[in-house]
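User: Hi! I'm working on a homework problem where we have to compare a predicted structure to a textbook description. Could you give me the structure for the chain below?
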Amino acid sequence: MSVYTTVTEAQLRQYLTQFDAGELLSFEGISAGIENTNYFVDTSCGRYVLTLFEQHSMEKLGYFMKLMAWLSEAGVPTAHPLAGKDGQYLRLLCDKPASLVQRLRGKSVEVATPAHCAVMGESLAHFHLAGRGFSQNRANDRDVDWMQGVAERLGGLIDANTKAFIAAELHTQQALMLDALPQGVIHADLFLDNALFDGEQLTGIIDLYYACDGVWLYDVAVTMNDWCRQPNHKLDTARVAAFLTGYARVRSWTAAEKQAWPFIVRRAALRFFLSRLQDQCMPRAGELTQIKDPDVFRQLLVYLQINCPPLAG
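Assistant: Happy to help. Predicted structure tokens:
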């Protein structure tokens, strides 16, 4: 969540006339995250998050809006999008597709405890199971082919050692077959800042704009790699055990998942190493943006290549 497109008060007031959302009281840009323009919006009827989509087309965004509504109505704590007076979730603002969604209570945790991780594990399993009835499909646009493309685009922007490191891991990942693994809707970006807590109660899973169809175990790995990572970029054993055991209380691991796990955790680390490296080497302009350190996930990937935690639970 960032601000790439500046919205004026007059523009926002005009936009809000398309909803039964009341009168504008205040709004402010959100600087966390890196993909879309986001504002907190308070009106006489409630509190919302306004998102202007910088990379997705109006046609492709319908998937996300319907998925958020589906999961919310299935009991997953996701923000339900607000339909306009015409019944549609999306309309243009500043020539960008835009949506208004409920602002959920709670806040992100900066460092997860084992208790937070246990709740997150259970909640991610419920998220996966709730998505089974969703009828729409979306391919993962951050898959291994995308990773290979990023590596090629980085080309001369990175040093020879980094190039060789990426190439070696991509070679391993391209040989990994995933067809036997349980699949369905995944969040694909469930980092600490994409979940809200009130104490130890999960109140929100947010920012579903990477959600897609994929291997559930990959989603587990993406989440674990952020929630259980220590400042030295290794994984905390107690948090890992709490997270994985929490997940397995809701859905048990298959034999194929146990076999693929050591490679899936590395794939998840490689994906975020490459996306952050791309943002660092080829940054986009924005008013309030954050470029996150790619070395965090490089160091984690090196660790995981030698020290894969067991698939507990």
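For your comparison, note the following. The radius of gyration is 20 Å. Residues 255-281 form the longest helix (27 residues). Good luck with the assignment!
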